[in-house]
Design a protein that fits this description.
The complex is a heterodimer of chains A (about 290) and B (about 350). Chain A is mostly helical and about 290 residues long. Chain A is about 75% helix and about 0% strand. Chain A has a single domain, classed as ABC transporter involved in vitamin B12 uptake, BtuC, CATH 1.10.3470. Chain A is globular, with a radius of gyration of 19 Å. With about 350 residues, chain B is an all-alpha fold. Chain B folds into 2 domains: about 20-240, no CATH class; about 240-335, no CATH class. Chain B is about 70% helix and about 0% strand. A two-stranded antiparallel ribbon of chain B has the order 1-2. Chain B is globular, with a radius of gyration of 22 Å. The chains are: A mainly alpha (about 290), B mainly alpha (about 350).
């Protein structure tokens, strides 16, 4: 029993690291542009497909594939920002709806180029597993360790960037009060591009490192976007710390429920818990303003 | 409202439309008849969706609420052998009751939180249908739902059901239209546009939002019961996020600003759907592009198109003197009959 609990904890930690970079990316876009990007899950899907093309089909090294995924997804993200989100900045419902449109388009493009229903499983470059601190029965496949390492590394890097660099300061100013930031001479357009690049890059790399662990298909984004929406809402819109905290809480809860009951029960209870949190605090754990 | 459309011409054109709709089932192919039946059900669904939207909130639980009506009606019919007419009423009432219960947590939230909160509530209900096989039949759903009968006409057949759905659609639309023009409807508009002002003159905004939500859910549930008794099989799949997004697209593309907007949206997009039936996997692509173009270029939806065209034509005629036209307040949906004063 103890082993099962420990193993579940290990699994939850790894799932959390992915959930955190995904949700932080979603939150960053919201902070700067007041737009919830429903197509964020499709950026993750695009990252996974890039790995499929570069690594599985063309046999290039895995880290090249991850870099390519980041690049491809950043380009898609920047196009979205320039063509769709820029004209609608501040219009929350409008932004939400064009991102839903973008979600449809990216899914259909994936179906068009790669086909639907064909299970694409990518073999991990590093097979085998690590017995956690030599404990028997608690193992982590190397690919999951890569996810953990890459995700927490990127998150730490992002944190240092936000706290220690001038650009990061300006970016935080944009998320706290875009208008006041603009008055200080910060170009919102420029920082929207930077935010979009970071957000898309995180989603793309997330998709790339997760690709060998999941089934790559055109609709793989739907389940993660639902998870991420729950996380950002529970954390409170506009709060990056809240997103990380909520990612930890939600993922641990979800992983334990999945282990001890089943996936569907975990989803139902996760949604119910989210509703309860919102009943007690209608703006999430760390959310302050009631943005509508 | 334009002066040109007097009540007479309006009544005449509505009558002509109704007559055309009555002849349709005898000239179209069977599968097209099916499309029309779904269209009627979807019109009730999307117009009831708009009833919530006019209070300023978009509910992503609406299709699941519709499903609640369908499941309730089907289960009552199967367990207790009640007459489908009765179960349809109880199904709609169940949908309204569930909506009332959900309104307690949901209406503590606003805007985006409401959107996601309603989605979560709906999805939790929908996942329960799939999970609890004993009660709701799991992911296969419920089958062999008893069909409706009037006298000895079996409404399970397409042609009788077509008229049945048409009649109920007209009744629902009339009720919802009257509702919106009534004091209640005006109050709903008021709490959307000026909720602080409305509250300061003594309108309980939350109370009216809940009322709109419950009434809209009743009609959505009713649409669900029609669907259940027509298809005779329902499953959680019929009420998924994809369908909910379609409803959102219909409403937004048509425009939620007017009563006719969502109806225009659903009718037009259903025809588009039919014409691209051969390329089914590209359907979402078309939806996505239409959605993006609408939001970027027609923020008030297709119902705002005539006013825009008028403006454009005027601009075109006065091509040489652009600045006078540009000086007019943009976005003014109603162009006055008098030409704008020319600058000299």
């Amino acid at each position: 029993m103890l082993e099962l609990i420990l193993q579940t904890c290990v699994n939850a930690i790894i799932a959390t690291s992915f959930a955190a970079i995904f949700a932080v990316g979603l939150m960053l876009i919201f902070g700067v542009m007041q737009i919830i990007n429903f197509a964020h899950g499709e950026l993750y899907m695009a990252g996974a497909y890039t790995v499929w093309v570069v690594y599985a089909e063309n046999n290039l090294p895995f880290f090249v594939a991850v870099l390519a995924a980041a690049l491809v997804v950043i380009v898609i993200g920047l196009l979205m920002e320039v063509a769709l989100f820029r004209p609608l900045r501040g219009n929350m419902l409008g932004g939400l709806i064009v991102s839903i449109g973008m979600l449809f388009i990216l899914q259909v493009l994936a179906v068009h180029f790669f086909g639907e229903g064909l299970m694409k499983t990518i073999l991990s470059p590093y097979r085998g597993a690590w017995e956690v601190f030599g404990l028997r029965g608690i193992t982590v496949p190397y690919q999951r360790l890569i996810v953990l390492g890459v995700a927490s590394g990127l998150l730490a890097l992002f944190w240092v960037f936000l706290r220690r660099s001038r650009l990061g300061w300006a970016l935080r100013a944009c998320t706290q009060d875009p208008e006041a930031a603009a008055l200080q001479g910060i170009s919102i357009n420029k920082f929207a591009l930077i935010a979009m690049a970071i957000s898309a890059g995180l989603a793309g790399v997330g998709g790339a490192v997760m690709a060998p662990l999941v089934v790559v298909d055109p609709h793989m984004g739907s389940s993660v976007i639902i998870m991420a929406l729950i996380v950002v809402i529970v954390g409170g819109l506009g709060s990056l710390e809240g997103a990380v905290l909520a990612a930890i809480i939600y993922t641990f809860f979800h992983t334990f429920m999945t282990t001890f009951f089943d996936g569907v029960i975990a989803n139902i209870l996760g949604l119910v818990v989210m509703m309860l949190v919102l009943v007690i605090r209608p703006t999430g754990i760390m959310g302050t303003s009631e943005k509508s | 409202m334009k002066k040109a459309s007097s009540p007479w011409t309006k009544g005449l054109s509505l009558g002509a439309l109704l007559a055309a709709v009555c002849v349709l089932p005898f000239i179209v192919k069977p599968f097209q008849l099916e499309v029309l039946i779904f269209l009627f059900i979807n019109i009730v669904l999307v117009v009831s969706f708009r009833l919530i939207a006019i209070t300023g909130e978009f509910s992503l639980a609406h299709v699941v609420i519709m499903g609640t009506g369908a499941y309730a009606s089907a289960l009552l019919g199967k367990w207790f052998g009640l007459d489908p007419w009765l179960t349809m009423l109880f199904g709609s009432l169940t949908a309204a009751a569930i909506a009332y219960i959900l309104s307690f947590p949901l209406f503590r939230m606003k805007g985006f939180y409401f959107l996601i909160g309603s989605f979560a509530a709906g999805e939790a209900i929908r996942l329960s249908w799939g999970r609890f096989r004993g009660v709701f039949g799991g992911s296969k759903g419920i089958s062999a739902i008893p069909p409706l009968e009037i006298g000895n006409i079996n409404l399970g057949m397409p042609v009788p059901f077509y008229f049945f759905a048409l009649a109920w659609m007209v009744i629902c639309l009339v009720i919802m239209y009257r509702l919106e023009k009534s004091r209640l409807g005006l109050t709903l508009h008021a709490i959307h546009w000026q909720d602080l002002l409305a509250e300061s003159v003594g309108v309980n905004a939350r109370h009216y939002r809940v009322l709109a939500f419950v009434i809209a859910s009743f009609f959505a549930g009713f649409a669900g019961t029609m669907l259940a008794h027509y298809l005779s099989v329902i499953s959680p799949h019929e009420f998924g996020l994809g369908i909910m997004l379609s409803v959102l697209v219909w409403a937004i593309v048509g425009g939620v600003g007017t009563f006719a907007g969502p109806i225009i949206g659903v009718v037009l997009l259903s025809f588009v759907d039919e014409s691209i039936r051969a390329f089914d996997e590209y359907r979402p692509l078309v939806y996505g592009i239409v959605l993006i173009l609408t939001i970027l270029f027609l923020p008030e939806g297709l119902q705002g198109l005539p006013a825009r065209v008028t403006l454009f034509v005027r601009r075109f005629w006065r091509g040489g003197r652009r600045e006078t036209v540009e000086a007019r307040p943009t976005g003014a949906g109603v162009a006055s009959d008098r030409p704008p004063p020319s600058a000299s």
